[in-house]
Amino acid sequence: MRKVLADMYVPPAWRRWGARVGLALAIAVAIAYLPWRTTSDERVDKLRGQLDATNAEIARLAHENAQLEREVAALRTDARAIIDHARDELGLVYPGEVVLRVQP
């Protein structure tokens, strides 16, 4: 028995392909967006924590750099700073001085 085309409805090709593309896009969005939506808040919190830690490290290093710059400037200009540095870091003494080393 032959089927009569008048009894079957076949939508136009553009409508069939449009429906397929629309369904594929909907599935792609669901796959790409939904699974990571619950973990994105955790990732954001983790990244904010890392940012805060990095900013604290930057502030600490900036303070340390400023302190070292002051020390360098003092060593370039202040004779007393040079003497103190030589005594503390290098263990230098004036001739005739007696050095007493105390062991902890």
SSE layout:
Layout lengths: L12 H65 L1 H12 L14
Helix pairs in contact: 1-2
Write down the domain tally: 1
- Please report the number of helical segments: 2
Query: What low-confidence regions span 5 or more consecutive residues with pLDDT below 50?
Result: none
* Gap between N and C termini: 110 Å
Helix fraction, binned, reads over 70%
The average pLDDT score comes to: 85
Largest sheet: none
Helix-strand pattern: HH
Helix/strand/pairing category = mainly alpha
What does this structure look like?
- With about 100 residues, this protein is mainly α.
- It has one domain (about 10-90).
- It has helices at about 15-75, 80-90.
- Helix 1 packs across helix 2.
- The longest helix has about 60 residues, at about 15-75.
Features:
104 residues; mainly alpha; 74% helix; 0% strand; rod-shaped
Q: In a few lines, what is going on in this structure?
A:
The chain has 104 residues and is mainly alpha-helical.
